[in-house]
Amino acid sequence: MAIANFIETVWSAALLEPFHSSQFLIPAVNHQYEGELRSGNAVKITGITTPSIQNYATSRTLTIDALADTTQSLLINKEDAISFKVDDVDRVQAAGSFEPVTRDAAKALAENAEFNLLVDLKANGTSAGATAITTAAHAYAAVQAMRTALVKAKVPNSDRLLAVSPEFASLLLGESSKLTSFQPIGDEPVRNGTIGRLLGFTVIEHPLLTHTSNRPAAVGFHAPSVAYVGQIEKVEAGRMELAFSDYIRALNVYGTKVLRPTAVQTFLPSV
């Protein structure tokens, strides 16, 4: 912050930081494709087709299948940066360091990456319905529809997450709530925003999950079927040339990918 008129005041470095949601879903999704990455790179992910089942009891012969592979690209195409300066007069008057500013900026970068993951889930998942949700019964029926779609797609029962908007969560948490309390299984972490379990999902209320005109919205998905590749690529500090100030800047490079669209079921009401 620049001080227009120097006054005998001690500035506190323990800043009142803005609230950030930081990360709810990114820690849970698939990180196995992370490694060396740079902005503009693409991670090539190869899948193999399943061999056909043959009735050997009847034919007593086998047909040798030629396995085919499929390839999809996870683009490292997101770049979020922060940059700020600290004037020397601020540094002198501060009762400590300005580390809280850096920490707050890092949280903001994490939050923006989380928002972009949600955008990807909504855009590239499979719709399980889009009817109006105005009651707790409607919300429960929407969760049932997403669960049924995942079962039909042969998605594993484990690692299923249900991200819900605050409006959707409000309905689920009503008087007739069917949510059960969250009890970690084994070394399962307690995720940010977790409000309980429902129909095999760990339910996470997400403040960044928004939908048209604040309509209730939800995304049910199998966490390993969504990939995230990213890292804080650069953090730099230096002396500004034309001011008695230092600068700090950081760059977060990342990409997200819905690997199996049928393993991500959305319920985004159109009315």
Summarize the structure.
The protein is of the alpha+beta class and 271 residues long.
List keywords for this structure.
alpha+beta; 5 helices; globular; 271 residues; phage-related protein like fold
* Count of DSSP-assigned helices: 5
Give the overall shape, derived from the CA principal axes. Answer: globular
Written as H for each helix and E for each strand, in order along the chain, the element string is EHEEHHEHEHEEEEEE
Biggest β-sheet strands, sense, barrel: 6 strands, mixed
Given as residue ranges, the uncertain stretches (5+ residues, pLDDT < 50) are none
Describe the structure.
The protein has about 270 residues and is α+β, with helices and mostly antiparallel strands. The protein has one domain (about 25-265): phage-related protein like fold (Alpha-Beta Complex). It has 5 helices and 11 strands. The protein has a 6-stranded mixed beta sheet. The mean pLDDT is about 85.
List the helices and strands and how they pair.
Blueprint: E1 42-48, H1 56-59, E2 69-75, E3 78-87, H2 88-93, H3 99-124, E4 126-129, H4 136-152, E5 160-164, H5 166-172, E6 194-198, E7 201-205, E8 218-222, E9 226-239, E10 245-258, E11 264-267
Parallel strand pairs: 4-11, 5-7
Antiparallel strand pairs: 1-2, 3-10, 5-8, 6-7, 8-11, 9-10
Helix pairs in contact: 4-5
